[in-house]
Amino acid sequence: MPQNKVLIIDYGSQVTQLIARRVREAGVYSEILPARATAAEIRGADPGAVILSGSPASVADEGAPTLSPAVLELGVPVLGICYGLQLLAQALGGRLARSADREYGPARLEVTNPSPLFEGLPATARVWMSHGDRVDQPPPGFTVLAATGDIQVAALGDDSRRLYGVQFHPEVHHTEIGAGLLKNFLKLAGLQADWNMASFVERTLASLKDQIGDGQVICALSGGVDSTVVAVLLNKAIGHNLHCIFVDNGLLRQGEVAEVRDNIARHHHLNLTVVDASELFLSRLAGVEDPEKKRKIIGHTFIQVFEEEAAKLGRVDFLAQGTIYPDVIESVSPLGSSVTIKSHHNVGGLPEKMNMALVEPLRELFKDEVRGVAAELGLPEEFIWRQPFPGPGLAIRVIGPVDRAMLETLRRADAIVQEALKTSGWYTKIWQGFAVLLPLKTVGVMGDGRTYENVVAIRAVNSVDAMTADWSRLPYDFLETLSRRIINEVKGVNRVVYDISSKPPSTIEWE
Ligand code: XMP
Known about the structure:
alpha/beta; Rossmann fold; GMP Synthetase, Chain A, domain 3; 3 domains; 9-stranded mixed sheet; 16 helices; binds xanthosine-5'-monophosphate
């Protein structure tokens, strides 16, 4: 019996992760392997069904990724999407036609033949296309299931072998019948909808107990959702053998240390050490102007402090980390070569140096799933929906050299921004919103006197993945409230400006 999961083979489409997420939203666990996965890896995954992704490549390109014969040898249902459909058709004896132009955008799909794949779905629907090549003649045994005005073979299938292909993209939102079609595929594959965060927590607790036994585990709490969820999970699994370390680097926002220590650690009975290393961080940052230098100093100092604390614990067997699935998936370039796996979550070579094994209980999860686990574990709603906050913290939001006084000024201004965003409801509508302290002085007038003080910039952006971003159109009245409150309440600030740059060419952070 294959496992109750879907294997997605990634041929380099921009939206492969979306396929994995849609399958999981339908309640079935899914995982992604790159196109160059070996037959042994594919067999080892032991999936109950396979989905072949799209690709920016053309099947006819030299060096274009090919369909591993191991996929069809599994004997499980296969759904090819776009490029995946073409690979499937080509491998089974169909004929492809190459076209010079890429068809891109919405199309009207007409279902022409009944099939379990389209069961219960409307006979016509808007679908999203993005392809160059198309199938001209289906392979023997296949029936054309749907067409559009432009192409004859928009979907095909062989019900007896449970092999299907669609030229459009069911995983994108614009395809009206996308979720229904994927559900139908999972159903015809006989897969059970057993993937949810409650069952994840249950299974993970069992496997953590198994993996760790009575070993000692250390975990760096950053104050973010991922590391906190890891800590709470581990605490439930192994209790007092978990040691959490939270390094106060002096670069955190107002109330952050208390939030982690009092609201979370105390509530969840975490075995937590808070190390106040702010003096060390700030002394090393003194006079440093270059943002990349700041980042390096902060990274190295963190490792040093963490190591010193870890050494006090004696023998430690495991290091727990909040690595999540997008960090694990290899990004695949269209022609098959792989790009290195992101390693930013790794606490700089610590595991090898200290002879510890890694524990990464969130490795399989997307960010929204981590939030689901956080809710399942009873973490506060407000904490779960926290906006991203960079590791180097406020050090990269005080422009130029950082000192305690400037950090305190920024902290106060930022607290006003955070509070106002939350009470107005804007907090959850934008990607990130925060204050930046500029090290320049401008003239103002307050009461009867002239002032000569700092400028605070407000940055608020909309984004889906932080790769690109647009400045948020916050209402003038709201901005006015922010400006008035910051200038009135924060000593040392007499001017507030709003950042109206998009990314690219700017970035979200100012440093
Ligand atoms: P940029 O400024 O590059 O930011 O547009 C994109 C996203 O990444 C966050 N960011 C960081 N996160 N360490 C982090 O952990 C960093 O050095 C860092 N720099 C930027 C930023 O807040 C935004 O969400």
